[in-house]
Amino acid sequence: MFVEIPMDTNRPYEMNEISDLWRNSVGEIPGLKELQFEAAGHVGGGPPLSFRLSGPDYDRLEGAAAELAEELANYEGVFDITNSATAGGDEIKLTIKPEAEALGLTMSSLGRQVRQAFYGEEAQRIQRGKDELKVMVRYPIEERRSVADLENMRIRTPSGDEVPFQSVAEVSFGKGYSSVSRLNRERTVTVSANIDPTLVEPQEIIKSVTQDFLPGVLARYPGVQSGLEGASEEESEFLRDLSIAFIAALFLIYALIAVPLHSYGQPLLIMSVIPFGLIGAVVGHIIMDMAISMFSLFGLIALAGVVVNDSLIMVDFINKSRVKGVAIREAVIESGTARFRAIVLTSFTTAAGLMPILFETSTQATYVMPTAVSISFGIVFATVITLFLIPALYMLQEDGFAAARRFKSWLSGPQAGAEAPEPPTS
Predict the structure, then answer these.
(1) Of 301, 302, 338, which is closest to residue 320 (Cα–Cα)?
(2) pLDDT by residue (tens digit) across 82-106?
């Protein structure tokens, strides 16, 4: 059943709320194989949790998948757990006897003759107007009603002789599979589940299951391998690629700052405010009661390039003041007082420009709100820290350079006619 709700912003329920109400109203149904309630309100494909088990032995795969499904049920906020290893209906399994191979029979020829007898073999096709009719040759209906008819049929050998079915094959009963999935020529089983993002993060569950639970399961079922697929695999790949992009962005920011400043140390001093901007972004998500999403991470990368502007202004002012002959301590203090208005106005106008997005109530704005929260709260938090952190770090850096120069001078020894310097005390 498909239900479509209006896109009106004044609707009383969201899609996830409707699916939750529906799920709670239905409750548990005994004997049900699969029941899913999905709300198409998230970005990405498939359930947020999806684990893949693969191996040559299907019985071990079933056991491992069953234990994994039970483990996922213990987590709060996890529901709609599905296991693709669910068996299908009853089926008849044929096994060829060793003496049949001496007669030239194979499992393929045995199965083909049984299929021809009970399902039929196409003999010809007849055109009836615009329709085409198939003529199938098979046993009469009264001779293909029961298993006894199968055991009483006769099998033709390659030499043309007919032998009783029971003399060349055996019949057994078992469960069939509705579908069989393979990856790299090995059978695979998928265990997936949905989560409530307000209660738990998918990456926390994935980390807990892969590190704490799956190693023990794989040890009990030799030959079984585990992995992620679907939305879980895509999210892991996305986080990995985003981490690489973030590191590349940091190197690029460092290079762009180091070239005009002609320094290797000052770019690190300027970039020291980036972690505090990230902290501010996390605090902003907590204040706005919003989970960190993919768009939040996009905002964090953009934030890294924005928060360095204020610290760059202060460091540049200190450098220019020192060139003019101003003492280091006075230059550091004056950088905070002289550039206070420019720093505060720049940061708070940026945050104010994002406020319309923060307080927008339309459905379309919900996707970009995490990005706005990351940038606005991060830049405000980093600005306050910058006014105190950068002057302190600049003084510490100069003290470190001064101590390094004194230590180098002490190691080089006294020059001719000069008194030996005392070793540095700190």
Answers:
(1) 338
(2) 887 766 677 888 888 888 888 888 8
Q: What is the pLDDT of residue 251?
A: 92
- Chosen domain end from 133, 158, 177: 177
Claim to verify: residue 372 and residue 293 sit in the same structural domain: yes
Task: State which amino acid sits at residue 32.
Answer: L
Domain that holds residue 24: 15-85+184-231
Lowest-pLDDT choice from 175-179, 286-290, 421-425 = 421-425
Q: Widest CA span of the chain, in angstroms?
A: 124
Tell me, yes or no, whether 336 and 394 share the same domain: yes
Domain count across the chain: 3
Q: Which two tokens stand for residue 356?
A: 């319309």
Residue 247 in this model has a pLDDT that exceeds 50: yes
* Structure-token pair, residue 391: 């002057």
**Do residues 347 and 384 lie in contact, with contact meaning Cβ atoms separated by under 8 Å?**
no
* CATH number where 320 lies: 1.20.1640.10
Q: Which of 266, 246, 273 is nearest to 396 (CA)?
A: 266
Report yes or no: 384 and 416 within 8 Å, Cβ to Cβ.
Answer: no
